[in-house]
Design goal:
Layout lengths: L1 H28 L24 H22 L8 H27 L7 H19 L14 E3 L3 E5 L5 H26 L5 H22 L17 H22 L8 H18 L6 H4 L1 H20 L10 H7 L4 H30 L1
Antiparallel strand pairs: 1-2
Helix pairs in contact: 1-2, 1-7, 2-3, 2-7, 2-8, 3-4, 3-8, 4-5, 5-8, 5-10, 6-7, 6-8, 6-12
Family: Belongs to the glycosyltransferase 4 family. MraY subfamily.
Membrane topology: Multi-pass membrane protein
Protein name: Phospho-N-acetylmuramoyl-pentapeptide-transferase
């Protein structure tokens, strides 16, 4: 528990200390947000606001993770140490953040609202996603547990194994499955990041949930308890809990500057990085299908875009919503930005609570 406090506190402190300096630098360089022409008219005032705020909290997470393990070692505290699962989360978190950084960089220097082309994004995200998926099936520990498995998981691994016809097919199907999850979460967070503080606040709750789940999985690990039918076979739950706390702390620090009126936006650097981390947590904690509930806000916002685009094409130009993603529909319906953000935070909290309730109640019922 002391590690969680140190990690979260350190990432919060680093973000709060260095974000104002970063904002001053971006303002001096005039690296501001280019607002989309097809967005709500009320967002025009946001043009020129510094962006790429994700750079600071991404770096804060990396520094805090390694520094926390160093501090715990110096204090002689018992910990799992730096683990394969922890490094894999950081890999997907950082690599997706890099894709977002390239996208933001192009937008800023070319003074346009579009950065990387869709194909460039797909290729880069695919390369990193495939690498993550392949690596996640490696590095077995003393109990022969790898960070991920080819079994589809809900609250733990199910009996549905993608390797039903052999390990090679299992690897291929798992790579496809993992990249489906990664694409869904990165797009979901990216679409949610349209109002001051909305994606940041929702992400804090999601990472908080994975922190609690990691603690529980560590306490109820199959290596620690005798009830094998209700225990958890997760490779490094303690380290995943630490990273969940670190991510929550960094984003709480960022929210101080991202709340309306935002002094800085996270940009694609931040939203893609967060989406990558969420996907990594779902896969490595063996709770892939539960992600639909825990990240329910990201899911419904993504669905609103799919519904809008699909209906527009099928109906010959008609729309279901006044504007997509969903948060902009409510803005155009007369809700203030603050009301949309707070009410969507409430929805995000309800989804997270439902996910945690399902996770815990399954253990209680099985017991």
């Amino acid at each position: 528990m002391i590690g969680l406090i140190i990690g979260a506190g350190l990432s919060l402190l680093l973000t709060v200390v260095f974000m104002p300096l970063y904002i001053k630098l971006l303002t001096k360089k005039q690296y501001g947000q280019v607002v989309r022409d097809d967005g709500p008219d009320s967002h025009a005032v946001k043009s020129g606001t510094p962006t790429m705020g994700g750079v600071v909290f991404v770096l804060a997470v990396f520094i805090s993770y390694f520094a926390t393990h160093l501090i715990l070692g110096l204090l002689g505290r018992v910990s799992s140490g730096i683990t394969a699962s922890g490094l894999l989360v950081l890999f997907l978190f950082g690599s997706m953040g890099l894709v977002g950084f390239l996208d933001d960089f192009i937008k800023i220097f070319k003074k346009r609202s579009l950065g990387l082309s869709p194909w460039q994004k797909i290729v880069l995200q695919g390369l990193f996603g495939i690498s993550f998926a392949v690596l996640a099936l490696q590095f077995p520990n003393d109990l022969d547990l790898t960070p991920a498995s080819t079994a589809i998981s809900f609250l733990r691994d199910t009996n549905i194994d993608l390797a039903f016809a052999g390990p090679m097919l299992g690897l291929v199907l798992f790579v496809i499955w993992a990249n489906f999850i990664i694409t869904g979460t990165t797009n979901g967070v990216n679409l949610t990041d349209g109002l001051d503080g909305l994606a940041t606040g929702a992400s804090i709750m999601v990472f908080g949930a994975y922190t609690l789940m990691g603690i529980w999985q560590q306490n109820q690990a199959c290596s620690n308890v005798n009830a094998l039918d209700v225990c958890y076979s997760v490779r490094d739950p303690q380290d995943l809990a630490l990273l969940g706390a670190i991510l929550s702390g960094a984003l709480i620090g960022f929210l101080w500057f991202n709340a309306k009126p935002a002094k800085i936006f996270m940009g694609d650097t931040g939203s893609l990085a967060i989406g990558g981390a969420v996907a990594a947590f779902a896969i490595l904690s063996r709770t892939e299908l539960l992600l639909v509930v825990i990240a329910g806000l990201f899911v419904i916002i993504s669905l609103s875009v799919i519904i809008q685009v699909g209906y527009f094409k099928l109906s010959g130009g008609k729309r279901v919503f006044k504007m997509a993603p969903l948060q902009h529909h409510f803005e155009l319906s007369g809700w203030s930005e603050e009301n949309v953000v707070i009410r969507f935070w409430i929805l995000a909290g309800l989804f997270v609570a439902a996910g945690l309730g399902i996770f815990y109640s399954e253990w209680v019922v099985a017991l």
